[in-house]
Amino acid sequence: MITHNSTWLLILSSGHSSGVIANIVFAYVIIFVQVLSVGLPVQEAFPGVLVPEVRAFSPASRDGLFPGDVILGVNGIDLPKTGPNLVSEVVDVIKKNPRRNVLLKVARGGQDLEIGVTPDKNSDGMGRIGVQLSPNVKFTKVRPNNLIEALNYSGREFWGLSSNVLDSLKQTFLNFSQSASKVSGPVAIIAVGAEVAKSNIDGLYQFAALLNLNLAVINLLPLPALDGGSLALILVEAARGGRKLPLELEQGIMSSGIMLVIILGLFLVIRDTLNLDFIKDLL
């Protein structure tokens, strides 16, 4: 009979968790290299949403928004402080108002302005104004004085990023109907990585670490094609007192899981490709 302790020994020795462990270790190593090379980023938040980029000939450019503007309010509602959902809240207002005037309160060069922007209507019926938005934050770098400090800084940053990933996962499951449409595939991830590289090369460290932590979490999902699926089969075997599932059933589960992952991957690649800006301009 397989006991509780022998089950965990079987899981650890089977190699089915090696991918998850590798992603976690690699994420920590990336953060450690970042701390040693450029220092630990310390974030200071300011009110509003920053506009780093305004695309030429876009509604935002046409109506008078400039790179470096800070959006302090939307349709008469002030944005008093920055937060994890502040950018998405502004984006949601723009998406819900195609071809309708959206009044923005904007800070520019020490002055507060009110600018009306009329979003264009996308092929999906949503509004867009052609800007890149980001939290209005500034980063300073704290460099460690010795190896112990570097390990301490890396551990704190690793724990913070891991907490963010787990919180995001929890919100995804609690609001699955709303979150499912926001799941990104490889094309969208590459596009985001390219944007990060253009705006701030230091941000690539954070992006790569977050990507590995997300891969570790995804790899733990109980899908047959992933490490989590293999671990689930081991747990089922343990619950059956060490008796394996029939070979035909196990092969059927693995095949269906692989097919599901392939179909989901193709769907995400096609959807993300169609959502790229230059593809939208061609359609």
From TrEMBL:
Q: Signal sequence: where? A: none
Q: Where in the cell is it found?
A: Membrane
What top-level branch of life does the organism fall under? Answer: Eukaryota
| Topological category with respect to the lipid bilayer | Multi-pass membrane protein
BP-aspect Gene Ontology terms? proteolysis
Q: Which cofactor does it need?
A: Zn(2+)
Single annotated GO MF:
metalloendopeptidase activity
Name the GO cellular-component terms.
membrane
SUPFAM superfamilies membership: PDZ domain-like
The coiled-coil regions, if any, are none
Query: Hydrolase as a keyword?
Result: yes
| Chief location of this protein within or outside the cell | membrane
| Keywords from the UniProt entry | Hydrolase, Membrane, Metalloprotease, Protease, Transmembrane, Transmembrane helix, Zinc
Q: Give the residue spans that cross the bilayer.
A: 20-40, 252-270
Q: Which Pfam families match?
A: PDZ_6, Peptidase_M50
Q: Where is the PDZ domain?
A: 38-110
The record's family statement is: Belongs to the peptidase M50A family.
What is the protein named? PDZ domain-containing protein
What is the species of this protein?
A: Nyssa sinensis
